[in-house]
Amino acid sequence: SVGGSVQVWSDYLNVHLHPKSIYVIRQYMHDGECGCLEAFGQGESLLQDPGCIEELEDRLHFYVEECDYLQGFQVLCDLHNGFSGVGAKVTELLYDEYSGKGILTWGLTPVMSCLEDSQKNFYRLMNTALGIVHLSSHSSLFCPLSLSGSLGIKPQPPVTFPYINYDASLNYHSSAILAAALDTLTAPYRLRSSQGSMMHLAETLNFSGRKVVAAWASVPFPALRGCSLPDTLCAYQQDVPWKLLSSCRERKVSCCFAQSVVLRGICKESHISCPGTQPASPLHACESTEQMLQRYLHTVFPGAFSTSHVLEQPCNTLHPYPQFFSPLLTRQGFLLDKPPSYSSAAVESIPVLAALQSSPVLHTLLHGLCKDLQKVNVRRWASFFSAGVEQDDFQEALQELRTLCQCYETGFEADESEDEADSD
């Protein structure tokens, strides 16, 4: 069985990695006794070592020279620890060396325990804030990605999904959900059939200084077995059945500035109405699933710039993907009216709906981080600053975070402040 004895992602890895694709930081081994990479400054200083930079550039050039069409780079980086500083320096290197190429950065955070000590909590907050500022400034687009309910000081319950029973304390479970979302979100520029590039996706979302985007996903997309796509979408006319994966409570007002939406695992013929019959809704009158999804998005998000993609290929959930699904799901991930009377087989694939949004919800996230940082007495945590971050650099980053936050203001912020006061 998989789960309990497995500690890290590479324990599940069936792919043989090329030696040039791995660079081991020996100062901070995963299971060593030489301490943890716990502060942003430690991560930054690692990549200021000329030997480290040379090794990294050598590995990059090896792969870049093999490319016949280099769109850009995806950077997956922990936000909560010293790898936040490593990621900041890596994106800066990519930005300087490969100007004009796309850099999409994903800031990952595990679900946090309520029992964290104050130092660990403070380090996490500082690493996260500095990471968001530095990663977004050198990326085409930056997305915080997590099942944790909050990136701030106050812990919040993790994200829940109606048809998944996962253990939030197991990285094996949470990373599987995020991987399904990430695989879906990045499809528009990864497929051979795609019209747009990584940079094109970034440019549709990052205008007006909005370099940070939020991720949403429906894992699985709740489609009844045998039910058409317009029937499914009509059941969710007011609220899209997805969850926010960017560590922030959802706003009462559902809106966004721009979005890229991907629906996968839905048969493209499932929308066809019977000839000669009156369409049950405008969605039923659409000629294709792409047109249907686009019309649905315009109805739910009027005024937003929306791009949409529909893929027939579902998300594969065969072993070693965890079997944490509801018994209401078929082997293809579609919903049943009631649980089967027999023991159901493993879920082999699921339909997924996912989106990247430039959204006012990011004002809530960034504003909350600014408020938490203002409350902190940084003099108490000299150890964090001794790792390489100067107090002046921190104040400058805090100002940049405020500026970034202002890019997402819409006029609903007064209501938001009242909500925060109520929750306190």
TrEMBL record:
The record ties this protein, via Gene3D superfamilies, to: Tubulin/FtsZ, GTPase domain (3.40.50.1440)
One Pfam family name from the record?
Tubulin_3
- State its location(s): Cytoplasm
**GO CC annotations on file:** mitochondrion
| Main subcellular location | cytoplasm
Write down the InterPro entries for this protein, in alphabetical order: DML1/Misato, DML1/Misato_tubulin, Tubulin/FtsZ_GTPase_sf
Q: Keyword annotations for this protein?
A: Cytoplasm
Look up the record and give one Gene Ontology term from the biological process aspect. mitochondrion organization
In this protein, which residues make up the domain named DML1/Misato tubulin? 5-191
Transmembrane stretches, by residue range?
A: none
What domain of life is recorded for the organism? Eukaryota
Protein name, as recorded: Protein misato 1
Q: Which organism is it from?
A: Cariama cristata
